[in-house]
């Protein structure tokens, strides 16, 4: 039986078929169950973020537009990429060479957009904390929208360049039928590493170090400016929350909306409106989500 399992093919009718990976049945069920749960959570939670920011006009701020871009990228990961890649844990790709190439393109695209959005968010928080007097004039909705568009365009161009060979010839690196792999050169790998990892980490780290220094200075100033305690505490809290979110965002698309749930009261209030279908009521987009005194309906 073990010998037969070792030579089980993904496509028995095809001579060049890849071999299936054999695992204990219980382990396979556990792995697939966990993966599908993560996928479902990623889709649902990021969809809630998208609906919240898109529906409620009060949330149409520059920072939230950047969070919306990030949520859209994460939603695409959960809705399209994760379901397509889960079967690969069984050792077989069932969707053909073209979909394989497009799936890799989507993966590179969403990662680039996510990283780009995090860099933009760090710039936004840097300006808000370190240069608050000019924040509203330098960081406008139109400028943020332009930056988001450029981020997506650059990510698409970058992904197309990295995967140009595979997009032209989807089966170029396929050694057996049912395989889904992409091979990149050393130069392409280094460029991608710098553009989507090392460079962004350096920028984000430098910006948040500056934010931290300013936050510490503000905290010290509180001792001698009692009247400004409330304002300073609010700004310092936002800096720390944003910093925490930035680093957690880097690890998993599913974590993003969970972070929002814990750190943003408006997100919890918006979820209540969405789950109870209050967003279907006339004028629901004008609801005030920022203050505790808001009537939730």
From TrEMBL:
KW Zinc (keyword) present: no
List the InterPro entries.
Answer: GPCR_Rhodpsn, GPCR_Rhodpsn_7TM, TAAR
Recorded GO CC terms: plasma membrane
Question: Which keywords accompany this UniProt record?
Answer: Cell membrane, G-protein coupled receptor, Membrane, Receptor, Transducer, Transmembrane, Transmembrane helix
Start and end residues of each G-protein coupled receptors family 1 profile domain: 45-246
Q: Which domain of life is it from?
A: Eukaryota
Question: Is Transmembrane one of the keywords UniProt gives this record?
Answer: yes
Q: According to its UniProt record, where is this protein located?
A: Cell membrane
> Transmembrane segments in this chain: where?
29-53, 65-84, 104-123, 144-163, 193-216, 247-267
Q: Which GO terms describe its molecular function?
A: trace-amine receptor activity
What Pfam families does this protein's entry cite?
A: 7tm_1
Q: How does it sit in the membrane?
A: Multi-pass membrane protein
Family label = Belongs to the G-protein coupled receptor 1 family.
Q: What is this protein called?
A: Trace amine-associated receptor 13c-like
Q: Which gene is the coding source of this polypeptide chain? A: LOC108880057
